Amino acid sequence: MSPRGKPVASRRLSSERAGTRSHKNRRSPGPADAATRRWRRDTRPKSIRAAVSATKSLRWNHRLIEAVLDELYVDDHFEELLGRAAGDLRPGQYAQAVAVALLLRHSWHPDDLACMLTRLKLRVGN
Q1: Read out DSSP for the chain?
Q2: Are 100 and 82 spatial neighbours (Cβ–Cβ below 8 Å)?
Q3: What band does 24 get if pLDDT is binned at 50, 70 and 90?
Q4: CA 50 vs CA 5, 10, 47, 53, 125: distances in Å
Q5: Whole-angstrom distance, CA of residue 120 vs CA of residue 102
Q6: Contact 42, 103 (CB under 8 A)
Q7: Could you tell me the pTM of the whole model?
Q8: How confident is the model at residue 12 (pLDDT cuts 50, 70, 90)?
Q9: What is the pLDDT of residues 71-100, one digit of tens each?
């Protein structure tokens, strides 16, 4: 169970499925209807600006780190590698947690993992 009382497995995709879905496909389910297009054109920009303004005083916290990790489809390997669940992380572990989640997300193809290691400027010996 997560700190919010939801079963952790219900918020996750399987490792294999998470590793093979493209970001673009996950966000664009299909053509939007006219009401959605109008909302995107007329309302979304104002809503996004208001939301961005509300983030000015935001600091790393459990809600934010859990949201980031959920969006990266953290699987059971995350807890195995870090020795604790996302909800049990200390603020000093947040950077490592995000890096581990990114590495897991990009670990399904050797080239993708190598690119993420380079992007994070991490040197590892195999």
Answers
A1: --TTS--GGGG---HHHHHHS-HHHHH--SPPPHHHHHIIIIIHHHHHHHHHHHTTT----HHHHHHHHHHTT--HHHHHHHSS-GGG--GGGHHHHHHHHHHHHT-SSHHHHHHHHHHTT-----
A2: yes
A3: very low
A4: 29, 31, 5, 5, 45
A5: 9
A6: no
A7: 0.66
A8: very low
A9: 988 888 888 998 877 778 889 999 999 999
